[in-house]
Amino acid sequence: MSRTRWISAAAAALLLISASPAQAAPDRSKLRPAGIDLTVAGAAASAKSRQAAPAADSPVKLSQTCDPATVTLKQTTTCTITAENTGAASTTVDLGTATTLNLPITAATGATATTPFTAKAPRATLAGVRAAGPVAVAADPGNIFGYIPLTAFGGNTVIPLGDEEISNLDVPGFVFDDTTYNRLGITSNGYLVAGGGEQADVSPNGTLPDPARPNNVIAPFWSDFDGTGTTGVLANVLTDGVASWIVVEWQVNVRGTADQRVFQVWLGINGAQDIQYAYKFDTMRDPGQPFTVGAENAAGTAGARLPAGTLPTTDLRVTSVGAQPGGKVSYTVTAKGLIRGPGHVLTIARSQAASTPITVTTPVTVTR
Ligand SMILES: [Ca+2]
Ligand SMILES: [Ca+2]
Q1: Which one of the ligands is nearest to 212 CA?
Q2: How far, in Å, from the CA of 165 to the mean position of ligand 1?
Q3: Which of 68, 166, 209, 250: CA 20 to 30 A from 233?
Q4: What is the fold, at CATH topology level, of the domain defined by 60-125+340-367?
Q5: How many angstroms does the Cα of residue 331 sit away from the middle of ligand 2?
Q6: Residue 174 C-alpha to ligand 2 middle, in angstroms?
Q7: Which 8-state DSSP code applies to residue 118?
């Protein structure tokens, strides 16, 4: 297609995306190569590092500010107390605040003053931090192209892969787990590594999710395959004139046999996650090796897969959820300057997630 036509097709695609975030209904009859060259790249740097666990014992973090920090007699200060769960697991927190004798409590919101110098917040349950990641690999009838042999189109990039090999392919940006990637690690074992990978990301089998490498796995059919003596992998970018997809097709043998498996991943490049697995079902027999169909996030901490030992019987879509911060609870305590001198506001948090309570102290001075 001419460059002008491609640009107008891209503009039309953008318009469609803004009008309707759902993917376009597949129309196989309109598919053609988008005319985008795919480049085989060198080995990528190592996969994204994992988020470090919080160093402190308690995943609940406590903060407190009192405004103003200095009050005159009869003037009030309001302290805002916030507890936030920074851990992955949900946890409870019990919060209490005490003031010094020169700063009696006059009001509280989100907590109850239990004595003139103490306030208590009701027990709160704080949701854990959720990483972005796949939550389902499931049929999506009517919204998946299904297997269309790439050999029906021109302009395929042929990636010959032997046994236990990976090749990186630079591609137009596709979205996976809220992140846009421009590189695919393509392994001979029937899975992709979003963002690219290296030899340490090649494994003949594994489960999903798993923090062990490889991570960021998109696996239409992960097993011990070998591209030796067969086509290996084909890749292309197809468009129906409205939307476009990177299509990767494996034509590989079960290792040590001439028993071929043919399957594809379709990765939409239209601004939203659109990841489809398509199968040439007359080749989808049990390979006689462990196999996994699924996907996991960049840390290998969240993912979805078909039950172990289950072959796909339909084409599949990978659905993900975005990241969510941990649960948070806040309340305020208002205290009045009663007697001149230094004082403070102390808050204690007890959480089922930590063996010892955590405290935070804020100095408040009463002046004339
Ligand atoms: Ca993993
Ligand atoms: Ca292999």
Answers
A1: 1
A2: 17
A3: 209
A4: Immunoglobulin-like (2.60.40)
A5: 57
A6: 26
A7: E
Which two tokens mark 78? 């309001």
Domain boundaries, the chain: 3-30+131-321, 60-125+340-367
98 CA distance to ligand 2 centroid (A)? Answer: 64
From the CA of 299, which ligand is nearest? 1
Residue 207 alpha carbon to ligand 1 centre in Å: 7
Q: pLDDT for 41-90, tens place per residue?
A: 654 333 333 333 333 578 999 999 999 999 999 999 999 999 999 999 99
Query: Using one digit for the tens of pLDDT, what is the confidence trace for 246-294?
Result: 999 999 999 999 999 999 999 999 999 999 999 999 999 999 999 999 9
Ligand with smallest separation from the Cα of 223: 2
- Identify the CA nearest to 24 among candidates 269, 229, 198, 232: 269
- Predicted confidence at residue 45, as pLDDT, reads 37
Q: Spell out, as residue ranges, where the chain has pLDDT lower than 70.
A: 1-25, 41-56
Q: Nearest ligand, CA of residue 188?
A: 2
- Quote helix, strand, coil % in the chain, to nearest 5: 10, 45, 45
Q: Please identify every residue whose CB atom is under 5 Å from ligand 1, which is an ion.
A: 210, 215, 300
Closest of 143, 71, 78, 83 to residue 341, by C-alpha: 71
Distance from the alpha carbon of residue 101 to the mean position of ligand 2, in angstroms? 73
The Å distance, Cα 43 to ligand 1 centre, comes to: 18
User: What does each C-alpha distance from 351 to 85, 122, 159 come to in angstroms?
Assistant: 10, 13, 53
Distance, CA of 121 to CA of 166 (rounded, Å):
55
205 CA → ligand 2 middle, Å: 9
Q: What is the pLDDT of residue 320?
A: 98
How far apart are the CA of 189 and the centre of ligand 2, in A?
5
Cα–Cα distance, 107 to 127 (Å, whole number):
28
Nearest to 347 by CA among 56, 63, 61: 63
Task: State the ligand closest to the CA atom of 300.
Answer: 1
Distance CA 60, CA 21 (A): 37
